[in-house]
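Continuing the series of single-chain predictions for the mutant panel. This is the parent chain; the variants come on the following pages.
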Amino acid sequence: MGDSSSDEGALGSQYVLYKNRREWSDVTPLKQDDGEHPIVSIDYTPEFEDCFDYFRAIVQKKEYSERALELTKTAAKFNPANYTVWQYRREILKVLKKDLHQELDYIEKVILKQTKNYQVWHHRKVLVEWLQDPSKEKYLTEKALATDAKNYHAWQHRQWVIKTFNLYDGELEYVDQLLQDDIKNNSAWNQRYFVVNSVTGFTQETLSREIEYTLDKIKILMDNESAWNYLRGLLLHDKGGLSRNKKVTEFFENMYKEGNRSPFLLAFIVDMCSERSLEHGEGEEDNTYSVARAKELCNDLATKFDTIRGKYWEYMADTIEKQSKGEAVD
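Parent structure:
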C-alpha cells in the first residue's frame, strides 16, 4: 500500500490511532486479507495498518461523512498513490456537496509534495473537469516544472488542460524560456511540437519559422539530440522530405565543409542519402546524397565518430546499398 516508514513524522507526534478515538468507537475495523499463508507480508506500521483497517470498514459500509472525508486525508498521507482512497474521497465530496475550490487548494499542496504521483494529478484533473475551471492549472504546472522541468505528470496535465480549454496563448513563449534555461530539455521540445501541431499545423510558413528556430539552437549546441530530433520531426511534414529543404541542406553542407563531424550531423546526412536511394536507387542525378556517400559516412561513424554503434552503421551501409538495388533488406 505504500511506504509507511515516516508515518509519525508526517502526522505529528500527537497522532492518535483511530481505534483509540471515541468518535470511531461505533466502527469495527476491517483487517486486510492476505490469505491464510501470505508469501511476503508487508511490515506496515501500527498507524498505517490502523488507518487502512478503518478505511476498509467505511468503504464496505458506504459511509459518506465528514469523518470519512477526514479519514481519506489521513490515508492519502500514508499512501498518496492509493487509487481507492482518492476515488472514495471524490465520492464523499459529491455526496456532501463540498466546496471543490477548497479541495483544489488542498490537492495543490499534496501535488507540490508528490509531483511524480499519478493519482494526485488525476484527482486534480477530475476536480477541474467538475468545476470547468482551468484558471490555476498552468501556474500549478509551472511551479511543479520549476523543480523538475522534465516531470512527465506535470507536462501531461499541462497538455490536457491547454488542449481541453484552448489555453495555447503564451505557450510558445513559455517553452522558449525553458529552452533558454536548458537547451537540452527534451520535454520542452516535445511541448513545442505539441503546440505548433495543435495551433497552426505544419504549414509552409510555420515550417520555415520552426526550421530556422531549430537550426539556430543547433548552432548554439551541436550535440543536442533533442534539437536534431525536433528538426527531423519538422522535415517529416516538408513536402521535400528530409533531403530537399534548401535551408537545411545548405546548413548541413556548410557545417560539413567547415570540418564539423558531429555524429548527429553525419547520421542525418546518412538518412538523407537513404531517402534518395529509396526514391531513385543508384540512378540519382544529384550525387550530394548518393549511396556512395552514405557508405562513406557510415564507415566514418563506425570507425571514428560513433564507434559504440559501429555494428549498427555497418548494417546501415549494407541496408542502403541493398535498397538502392531493390534487393530485400534483412
